[in-house]
Amino acid sequence: MRICRSYSGVPAEARGAVVALGNFDGVHLGHRLVVGRAVELAEGLGAPLAVLSFEPHPVQVLRPESAPNRLTPFRAKARRLRECGVAWFYCLHFTRAFSERSPDWFMAEVLAKGLGVRHVVVGHDYRFGKGRAGGVETLSDGGARLGFAVTAVDAIGNAGEVYSSTRVRQYLQRGEPRLAAAILGHLWEVEGRVRSGDARGRGLGYPTANLRLDDTVAPAFGIYAVWAGIVGDNDTDTDTDWHPAVASCGVRPTFAGADPVLEVHLFDFDGDLYGRYLRVAFVTWIRAEERFEDAGALVRQMAEDCREARFMLAGARPPRDVGRTAFNQ
């Protein structure tokens, strides 16, 4: 998959593409339906397949005080889109100045002139342009005028509710990663560079790799059975080495911690993970975070947590890897 940061100077082989528009945070099953429809159209037309999205999320720029934390940072989103078969990922920088552009400008300058799109696919409630003034009807009218077709995809869901990123966040914040995975179509992951910590886990006999959550959604504080994937030295996702593991997400109340951190203990692993890129896929909840009276009580509980996590992961398969993504574009 090729990643492009601009809508100008598009390679000739990328023009005339079928383009799915959206933010696609989480790349859940509803998003996959939109991209899947674009895949079908691209195959039928013999056209390139592309996705157009924005970084950062427009809400983070326009209403930062109410912006939800993300399910998938950029790298994770790119991986999931590649899994869907996307060949070109246009990730445009979103600014306040860009937010002032009209729907007509976006259709003419970005879609028609810049990308030379052949067909656009969106969700039924897609909005764009200044004040979110543009919608599916706007796109259809503009496409008829500018030379591209438009397909709107209806919402899908389960249990009487539409699949949405909001529902996924709610399940994660309730400690229900399995329900979140049912909407995502894959295990939810936290990923990033392993940071140096205070080495308490190693001193207690359970060394951990520490990840900061930053602007990623914080799941319910507690202990989880997880898969931990160590990304290879070439820094792509083709050679991720998966290990069964147990993870603690929270503020470490036994040691009067303050900032949330994700600590991951890989089973039967002896190596240095500092600075390595780690993917942590949440499988199931074990228990809530607790404060223990002393280190001895904590160690006994950690041993029990490890036994339970091993049992939950026994016979299970790690997440399925996808192909190479060029992150240096």
Can you tell me about this structure?
By secondary structure, the chain is of the alpha/beta class. The protein has two domains: 2-6 and 14-158, HUPs (Rossmann fold); 188-313, Elongation Factor Tu (Ef-tu), domain 3, CATH 2.40.30.30. It has ten helices and 14 strands. It has helices at 29-45, 58-62, 74-83, 96-99, 103-114, 136-146, 165-173, 177-184, 200-203, 295-313, and strands at 2-4, 18-21, 49-55, 88-93, 119-123, 149-153, 157-158, 161-162, 189-193, 209-212, 222-230, 241-250, 261-266, 277-288. It has a six-stranded parallel sheet, with helices on both faces. α5 crosses α6 and α7 runs antiparallel to α8. The radius of gyration is 22 Å and the shape is elongated. Residues 322-329 have low confidence and may be disordered.
What is the gist of this entry?
With 329 residues, this protein is of the alpha/beta class. The protein has helices at residues 29-45, 58-62, 74-83, 96-99, 103-114, 136-146, 165-173, 177-184, 200-203, 295-313, and strands at residues 2-4, 18-21, 49-55, 88-93, 119-123, 149-153, 157-158, 161-162, 189-193, 209-212, 222-230, 241-250, 261-266, 277-288.
Overall tally of structural domains:
2
What is the CATH fold-level name of the largest domain? Rossmann fold
Low-confidence stretches: 322-329
Q: DSSP helix count?
A: 10
The run of helices and strands is EEHEHHEHHEHEEEHHEHEEEEEH
Oligomer: single chain
Number of DSSP E strands: 14
End-to-end Cα distance: 10 Å
**CATH architecture descriptor name of the largest domain:** 3-Layer(aba) Sandwich
How would you name the CATH homologous superfamily of the largest domain? HUPs
The percentage helix is: 25-40%
Give the CA-based shape.
Answer: elongated
Class by alpha and beta content: alpha/beta
What is the strand content? 15-25%
Q: Which radius of gyration do the C-alpha atoms yield?
A: 22 Å
**What is the spatial order of strands in the main beta sheet?**
1-4-3-2-5-6
Mean pLDDT across every amino acid position: 90
CATH class of the largest domain: Alpha Beta
Largest sheet: 6 strands, parallel
